[in-house]
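[job 4471] stage=fold_predict status=RUNNING
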Amino acid sequence: MTRSTPLMLLLAATFSAAALPAAHAQAPNAATRGAEAGSAPVLVTAAQWEQMRRDGAGYPMFAREQARAEKLVRAMMKAGIDVPVPKDKGGGYTHEQHKRNYQAIQAAGALYRLTGDKAYANFARDVLLGYATLYPGLGAHPEGRGQIPGRLFWQTLNDSVWLVNAVQGYDAIRDSLSADERRTIDDNVFRPMAQFLSGNPENFDKIHNHATWAVAATGMTGYVLRDPVLVDQALKGSKRDGNAGFLKQVDQLFSPDGYYEEGPYYQRYALAPFILFANAVQRNEPERGIFKRRDGVLLKAVDALVQSSYGGYFIPINDAILDKGLDTEELVAGIDIAYANTGDTRLLSVAKGQKRVLLSPEGLQVAKALAEDKARPYAFVPTLLRDGPAGTEGALAILRMGGEDGQALVMKNTKQGMGHGHFDKLNWLFYDNGQRVVTDYGAARFLNIEAKSGGIYLPENTSWARQTLAHNTLVVNEQSHFGSDWKKGQPLAPAPLLFAVTDDTQIVSARMDGAYDGVSFTRTQALLAHPSLGQPVVLDLLRVDGSTPARYDLPLHFNGHIMDVGFKAQSAVTTRPVLGKANGYQHVWVDASSEPGTEARSLTWLLDGRFYTYRFASTAPARALIGESGANDPSFNLRREPLLLQRVDGQASTTFYGVLEPHGQYDGTAETVRGANSRIDRLVHYRGKDASVLVLDLAGGQRLALGIADDPSKGGSHEVSGDGQRWSWNGGWKRFDTATGKGGK
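[job 4471] inference complete, writing structure tokens
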């Protein structure tokens, strides 16, 4: 999976310990600060800029980045200064122009230092003087969103992003300005912008990515302006009492494994302000040891984010947009700064794939290491990323086989993820052959496309994307988890029960209580390899126990073209009935439906030259429905995507089970087909007193059985019998491989 990337924010970060140890160790003293004290750069020192100017051309990736910046800024200089009065929503002209301006200010500042050409400094100065005329007269943005609209942009978040980036360019040119110019820009642009952010505690003191951008902007501005109050507010909250601010965010938003509470998509977005401001803190106050805080959790966060990807794209849980991946601007900053602090050469292979570096000491260090061929492969491995500040509030489980583009099974057993979280406990996704196979919709949003509500979350994000039906997990009585109330769901995380990895078996299990009153459900999934199978398969077991009879729906959202419907169903040929009236059901057309039954059924589809057969059944009579998203969507905001739904009615408890098998190959160019038929002959479920066994009879006479305890977190012995066979084991699970007809013990 590859794609082009928009111009990277040329993030000039702070220090490089390995490259410039002397500059890292101490702040610039009075002798190095220029004619007027306090004007020399502090985010990247003059000595560091000089080293980059001297050495950068010798390293191809750094030189390409500088050339790219020069092209951008020269085009902006040719177009002339344009600092418009804000009026547009996201994606509109004034919105985009203010974005271009902060990119140009930042890039021009770097180029002034790297080339010595005063024209770059003068251009950045003139743009900022334009803002010094504009900004003091601005009130709330005319298209303002939320309780605290921005001034340059329609939401305060964008104002924070502008300041994080522009202050880096300003730091680079500040000592080239006259005292009057400096005072004008300080007092009419940067100080009032920082004060606007810190003066709105409803946003500034949140534990949330919006607040992370705000505190980073304020703190970096405080260092540049030599304003300790702004720095203290950024670190400790608007009241400077430690109950909010950057340090509190570091402590509360990341788990000990570096997993960010809102999920990978927002971890990507929040990473830039976390890493950039941490670098600024380390540069100016190294005694804080910010990169050592919580056992180096900010550096762990970079590694956790890379692991939370497949095929170059981030795993799209919660309010995620599908096309964000490892080459995103924010992760370029994260990789460069993490490498500078750790020397982890695995990160260099990610940087090589990004084809970008920062115009910073860290970027120079990465470019140098790549030129010296120091990169080693980044290993994508089975990973359990605990959630919550103490790592006790669920987890994201990622099982992997077959290398980077092989099989990846993701089970989402995390906490809610605040307001960006979706109602989808024990949801799962599956990747294979470089493709999304079992999918997650992500967010209903077209970022910064003005025609789609200015790029904000669309109404269908609430009515479809966040609803439980839009995910691959249990729905009870056509209601979403927690009654679609994220504040109710926030304190109720799944309980992880099992995570184990062997050469041929990887298995994860978790239980969810509280998503519905009186209902508990436990899901166990395994990624299994076997010589008789072409590719590893996914085994899925979901047990639901309720206090009263209910309707249980289990959707599966998949990607591909249906090849074979392996069950008898009535197709809706002339009309397309809608599945329901609310909670996402109003957005699903029903194309086919079966009668209730307990027999195992199958559905086969084709995706990118590979076949996928899903065999599924339940212990209570279930209907199978095939549908598609997109009903009741007059503005065409939703993607049309297929789903399979299993429905059990009138039961208090039941068990759903299934196996997803990748197999075969279709080559449209050569007109050849291999292995189009499943290599699994039968799927059977057997039940014991406190455990289940799932049995796969494979083509060629082999049998694969997996024993799973009801609570695999506990020890003890278990026994299951059925069809003349008996399986017994100690512990949470055991795998049994035999020839057909021969049971295991």
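[job 4471] summary: The first helix runs from residue 21 to 25.
[job 4471] exit 0
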